[in-house]
Amino acid sequence: MATRRKKAQIGQSSEDAASAARALVASINAHDVGLLISLLTGDHVLIDGLGARMGGLEKLKKAWTGYFSMVPDYWIRIDQELVSGTTVVLLGTAGGTLAVGGRVDPENRWSVPAAWRAVVASGRIVEWQIYADNEPIRAHMRRAGLIGS
């Protein structure tokens, strides 16, 4: 990984990295899976809030499509952006409403403080790591019988 980062820094500004991270957030907020996938490198790794790692663009496409189906109004709001070379840290809030049985009811709405870390190479996201408390959505999922306790 260190080699990739070193190569990525050549000819790439911090503003380029920040723009790539902002574009990814915009694609997530638009629920545009095609655009989202186009912003990732072929060896992209997603690390979720529980530390699980996922790679492979087809797997990621299915995962994002599934997530947007499960939380059809998912959103990210960025309040602060920190950039160092090709690494961007975004601080803000994430939320949405868990769809249960095809219904999006207000009692299944959640919102949590969150942070995201993006590593960028050649204008694309190599790694996207999410730092967020999953318990609020998991509580809704338990109540709906979608997961066990």
What tags apply to this protein structure?
5 helices, alpha+beta, disordered N terminus, 36% helix, six-stranded mixed beta sheet, 42% strand, 6 strands, Nuclear Transport Factor 2, Chain: A, 149 residues
Layout of SSEs?
Blueprint: H1 2-9, H2 14-29, H3 33-38, E1 40-47, E2 53-55, H4 57-70, E3 75-84, E4 87-100, E5 103-121, E6 124-132, H5 135-143
Parallel strand pairs: 1-6
Antiparallel strand pairs: 1-2, 3-4, 4-5, 5-6
Described by the principal axes of the CA atoms, the overall outline is globular
String of helices and strands: HHHEEHEEEEH
**Helix percentage range:** 25-40%
Overall number of strands: 6
Number of helices: 5
Q: Uncertain runs with pLDDT below 50, 5 residues or more?
A: 1-11
